[in-house]
Amino acid sequence: xxxxxxxxxxxxxxxxxxxxNATWVKGNPENLINFFHEDMVIVSPDFExxxxxxxxxxxxxxxxxxxxxxxxxxxxxxxx
Length: 80
Hints:
It is a single chain. By secondary structure, this protein is mostly helical. The protein has a domain at about 30-70. The chain contains 2 helices and 2 strands. Strands 1-2 form a two-stranded antiparallel sheet. The model has no long low-confidence stretch (mean pLDDT about 80).
């Protein structure tokens, strides 16, 4: 089902989400650095710092890629 996106900004944001997901799901986590801000951080659900900086965060996704198997990605329609 195609998402109902009305504005150009929404279209660009939705495309960014799709590109980000495709990069991750297709097994190219090293390309995630193109999406990550240089000051990006990753925190756990209880806000423990797990990674700081785009390189460290990208590396964590590379490690994560080998820890999990993505069987079928689920990309939902954006909420309004």
